[in-house]
Amino acid sequence: MIFTDSSFYPDVSPGYLVRVIHQMSVAAIDRTLAEDGMTATQWMTLVSLYFNHADTCAGLARRMAHDKGAMTRIIDQIEANGWVLRQRDPDDRRVVRLTLTDAGRAAALSAKQKVIACWNGFLADWSEREVEDLVQMLQRLRNTMEESDACQG
């Protein structure tokens, strides 16, 4: 499908659909993790640290497509819960490294099981092949967007 003025509207717009799906999933995960005193965004941050996607606030903000100020507030919250430690880099005192505490690792892994159950619930009527295809297509789209300059004015 090539989009045209007459064929491009919200229900076929990849950006719109991805955004709505993201908002719906965050709301569902927020409800799922509420009893643990955790939000979906806090969980995504813990998991990003757990999988070593970044180890600084700025790195997490880039990786998770968040505003740096918002990421700082999220780190403040998870630090207050005892899930992360901030430590100055010994080689560059301007850099603050983030590490999960034992409690943070445990919270991330416990929440991961609940998030898995949530997504398995969303996809219960999908075949394993359909789920694999969806993930592959989303990964392909992400990679294409990372490498593309299609929207560079």
TrEMBL record:
<keyword id="KW-0238">DNA-binding</keyword>
<dbReference type="InterPro" id="IPR036388">
    <property type="entry name" value="WH-like_DNA-bd_sf"/>
</dbReference>
<dbReference type="InterPro" id="IPR000835">
    <property type="entry name" value="HTH_MarR-typ"/>
</dbReference>
<keyword id="KW-0805">Transcription regulation</keyword>
<protein>
    <submittedName>
        <fullName>MarR family transcriptional regulator</fullName>
    </submittedName>
</protein>
<feature type="domain" description="HTH marR-type">
    <location>
        <begin position="14"/>
        <end position="143"/>
    </location>
</feature>
<dbReference type="Pfam" id="PF01047">
    <property type="entry name" value="MarR"/>
</dbReference>
<keyword id="KW-0804">Transcription</keyword>
<dbReference type="InterPro" id="IPR036390">
    <property type="entry name" value="WH_DNA-bd_sf"/>
</dbReference>
